[in-house]
Amino acid sequence: MTFVVTEECIKCKYTDCVSVCPVDCFYEGENMLVIDPDECIDCGVCEPECPVEAIKSDEELAAGEEKWLVLNTKYSALWPNLTVAKAAPADADEWAEKKDKAGEFSEKPGEGNL
User: Fold this and answer.
1) What value, to the nearest 5°, has the Cα angle with vertex 95 and ends 89 and 96?
2) Global pTM value
3) Which end of the chain has fewer CB within 10 Å, C or N?
């Protein structure tokens, strides 16, 4: 089992989850975070910290959400590691309740730890 960041994170990118992760397995893209499934120790402390419920166990992914495990695996190898919480984007609260955000996904890396 591993934990996966899903599309609810897109354009919100709250980092509450990052500050509680004991193994620093979060990676930052331009408009979302991902978890490296090989580094994740399945402790689950990040899941309840996400205010938009974007983090799920890979065993809890609904049909059609398996692509998020693939995306987390791919981009955790490409994006910079994020080990400290940072401010959410200014418009994060506006995006928090929006659905079907997959089309907004950006492959660009974030800044990681500044």
Assistant:
1) 100
2) 0.96
3) C
